[in-house]
Amino acid sequence: MLSYHMQGFSGYGVQYSPFFDNKLAVAASSNFGLVGNGKLYILEIGREGKIAEVNSFLTQDCLFDVAWNESHENQVLVAQGDGTLRLFDTTLKEFPIAIFKEHEREVFSCNWNLVNRQNFLSSSWDGSIKIWSPLRKQSLMSLTPRPLEITKMVDPLNAILLNKKNHTGISKNKNCVYQAQFSPHDPNLVISCSGNSYASLFDIRLPPSKNQNNFLVHSGLEALTCDFNKYRPYVVATGGVDNAIRIWDIRMLTTNGSATNNRTTQNQTHNPSCINEIINAHGLAIRKVSWSPHHSNILMSASYDMTCRIWRDLSNDGTKETYKTNSTDARKGSILNFTKHSEFVFGIDWSLWGKPGYVASTAWDGNLFVWNGLGY
Amino acid sequence: MQNVCHTSPTEQIIQKSHRIQSGSLIPSKRTRLVRTELKTQYNNKDPHVETCFLHDTSDLEGVNNVKFQTQPSPLTLRAQNNTEDSSSWVPQFSSMKIDDPLEFSSEYKRLYSNYESRQRQNSIRQNLPFRSSMVRKTTLNYPLQNTLQQQRQGNRNDPTDAFNFDAEFHNLENEMQEARYEPIIQQDEKWLDQDQVELQKIATGIVKCCTPPPSSTSSSSTLSSMESKLSESKFLKLMRGISSGDVTLKKKADGNSSSEFFSPNDGELVGNRHVFISDEVREDISN
User: Fold this and answer.
1) Which region among A295-304, B94-103, B190-199 has the lowest average model confidence (pLDDT)?
2) Rounded CA separation A58/A39 (Å)
3) Residue range B123-180, pLDDT digits in tens
4) A92 to B282: CB separation less than 8 angstroms, yes or no
5) Residue A219 gets which letter from DSSP?
6) What CA–CA distances, in Å, run from A82 to A59, A78, A137, A246, B265?
7) Which of residues 220 through 239 in chain B touch A, CB cutoff 8 A?
C-alpha cells in the first residue's frame, strides 16, 4: 500500500490519469470542505514506490470533484464550491486556463465524456446538470431531473419520508444532484442521482419534454452516487443514505414506472429494474460506487463509515446472468474491506493500468492510499 | 403481655409485618401494636445517634443518621399523641427540651443551621468545575439534573425520607444554578447571526447522528471499529465544538461570513487560514 498525506486538506475526489500510469489528480478542501480554500494535487507514483506531489493549485473555494481531460494529457477539470468549474493545465502554475461559471450553488461532480472525449458535464446543488465543451464558456445544455419539480405531488415518496423521521436532511437537500455521469458506451446517455432519492437517465438527443426517465432508487433517502457498468451497457449501480448498494437494469425501466409520465405509485418502491442489492453494505451512508474497468461483475464502494469495500455482483458471473442476489451469500459478496482511513471516504478510482485491481482512495483524513483491491 | 392478649391470627400477622416495617420507622395506624418494638429500637439507637448529633457536630455521618433514624416524623408524632401510651415518649422529648412536639429545639435548630452552612459550602465546591470553566457546560449538567430529578422523585415516594434535607437542599441549589446559567446562554446566542446558528444546528444534527447511544452494544467488530473511529474523528470533534458554541464561523467587518472558523472564547483561528485567490485565467495554454 502506498500513501500520501495532504497536510491541512481533506480529500474529496481522485482520478487516475487516462494517459500516464503513475499520475493521479486529487481534489481536496480545507476545513473538511465546510469553508475555506480548495487544492488540486497532481501526484506521481515514483519508481521507488513513493507518491510525490509534482504540482498543486490552490483555489478560492473548496473542491469537490476532479476529472482528467480525456483528450489532453495535461488538463484537469475541478468542481468548485462557488458554482464554477475550472480547467487547469498541470504544466503551468497557479491559475486555471478556463473557468466555467453558470451553476448557482456548489458543483458536486464533474465527468468527462469517455466516448466522444469532446465534452464534460457537471452536477450541482442548484438541481441542474450542465453539459459543457472546453472550447465554450457557456454550457451546451442544461438538464433538470423532473422529479425535483413533482416531488411534492408524489404521495408515496412523501409517505416514505414521513416514515424516516430520524432523517431530516432530505427536505433541504432534495434538489442537490450529487453525481452525474456520461455512459462509457453511449456519448448521449447521462445518469444522475439526487437528494430526492431518484436516479435520472437522460438521452440528450431527445427534446426536453421526453428526454429523461426517473426511478426511485433509495427508499426515499438521498441517492448519493451512481455509476455505469463498463462492460454491461444497461447496468448501473447506485448508493445512498440507506447504506445500500443497488444494481439496476435500465432496459427494464418502463414509462409506466417512470415518474415523468405517470404519478408514482406504491409499486415503484419495488421497481423490477432493480436486479440486485447489497443491503447494509456499509455501516453508514455510501458516498461513492465505482465499477471495475477490468471486470464486469466487480465494483468498489466508499462510505461515511470510513471504509472502502470491493464487492462481487453475484447476479452476474462475468459472462452471463446468474439470477442470484448478493443476499444469498454469507458475506454478501464482499471481497475486501479496506479500513485504513480514519475519516469519511469520499473519493475512489480504479487504476486502468498494469495488473487489474489497483485502486486509489482519498478521505477527509487527508490521506491518499493506493492499494490492491483484489489481492491477486 | 399484649401479644398474649391478641389471639387473632390476623393481628399476629400484622404485628409481624409491622415488626419488619419498623426497621424503617414507617408510621402506621396500628402504632399501638408496634410501639414496643419502636420503643426498643429507639432506646437502643438513640443514645448513640443523639450523642453524635449533639456532641460531635463535625461528624456529618452522625447528622445524617439523626435525620434518617431519630428525626420524628409528624405522622409518627401525631400517631403517638393519639395513642394511650404516648406518655412513654414524654421523657424522651423532655430530655431534649422539646415543648412542642412539632417544633424543633433551639439547640437542634442551631446545630442544623451549622450543618446546613457546611453543606452549602460543600455543594459550592462540588459545582465549581462547571461554573468556572464555561457557561455552556450547562449542557453537561443535563444528566446530573436527571439524576437529581430521579432522586427527588424517589425521596417523595419514600416516606422515610420526608426529612431528607440534604437531597432537597441539593435540588434547590441546582435549580438556582440552572436559573443563573440560562440567561447567560441566551445572551451568548444573541451574538450568533443566522449563518452561525444554522451551522450550529447542522453540527448538532451531525453529532447526534454520529454518536452511538450509550446503551448500544455493537454486535459486530465492524460496528465497534466504526464507533471507535467516529469517537476519534477530527471532523466530529470540530462538529462538537461548533455544536457547543466553542467554534463558529468568523465574520468579516461588513458582517459577511469569512471562510474561516474561530473560537469565540479566545478569538483564535480554528482549522486552516483562508488565502484569497483571484479569479485570473492563464492565457499561455500549452498545446
Assistant:
1) B94-103
2) 4
3) 433 333 222 222 222 222 222 233 333 333 444 444 444 456 677 777 777 766 655 5
4) yes
5) T
6) 10, 12, 16, 32, 30
7) 222-223, 225-226, 229-230, 232-235, 238
Query: Which H helix or E strand runs over A44?
Result: strand A38-45
The pLDDT of residue A265 is: 42
Higher per-residue pLDDT: B108 or A299: A299
CA distances from B168 to A75, B111, B172 (A): 73, 18, 6
Range of the domain at A167: 2-372
Angstrom distances, CA of residue A166 to CA of A138, B108, B127, B207 = 41, 56, 35, 13
User: pLDDT tens for residues B85-122?
Assistant: 555 666 666 666 656 667 777 778 888 887 776 655 54
Please give the average per-residue pLDDT across A106-128, as a whole number. Answer: 95
Nearest beta carbon to residue B280 from set A95, A337, A364: A95
Q: Is B251 helix (H, G, I), strand (E, B) or coil?
A: strand
Residue A354, classed as helix, strand or coil, is: coil
Torsion A35-A364-B204-A241 (CA) sign: positive
Instruction: Give me the mean pLDDT over the A69-80 stretch.
Output: 96
| Cβ-based burial of B99 (10 A; exposed 0-12, middle 13-18, buried ≥19) | exposed
Q: How far is CA A337 from its chain centroid?
A: 20
Task: Give chain A's domain count.
Answer: 1
- Pick from A357, A352, A129, A35: nearest CA to B196: A35
Q: Does B75 score more than 50 pLDDT? A: no
B232 with A342: Cβ contact below 8 A? yes
Q: Looking at the complex, does the CB of residue B277 fall below 8 Å from at least one CB of chain A?
A: yes
CB A299 within 8 A of CB A359: no
Over 50: is that where the pLDDT of A179 sits?
yes
Residues with Cβ within 8 Å of A55's Cβ and at least 6 positions away in sequence, in order, are A41, A42, A90, A91, A93
CA-based nearest distance A259→chain B, Å? 31
CA distance A130 to chain B (A): 21
CA gyration radius for chain A? 19
- Contact at 8 Å (CB) between A18 and A68? yes
Which has the minimum average pLDDT: A83-87, A230-234, B186-190? B186-190
Per-domain boundaries in chain B: 2-103, 117-188, 192-212+225-270
- How do strand A212-216 and strand A223-228 relate by DSSP bridges? unpaired
| Helices vs. strands in chain B: H and E counts, helices first | 12, 3
Q: What ipTM did this prediction achieve?
A: 0.85
Question: Which of the four pLDDT bands, split at 50, 70 and 90, describes residue B215?
Answer: low
Judging by beta carbons within 10 Å of its beta carbon (0-12, 13-18, 19+), is residue A259 exposed, middle or buried?
A: buried
Residue A160 maps to which CATH number? 2.130.10.10
User: Looking at residue B264, what is its pLDDT?
Assistant: 84
Question: Is residue A312 pLDDT above 60, yes or no?
Answer: yes
> Which of B118-124's residues contact partners 24+ apart within 8 Å by CB, and which partners?
B118/B60, B119/B166, B119/B169, B120/B169, B120/B173, B123/B169, B123/B170, B123/B173
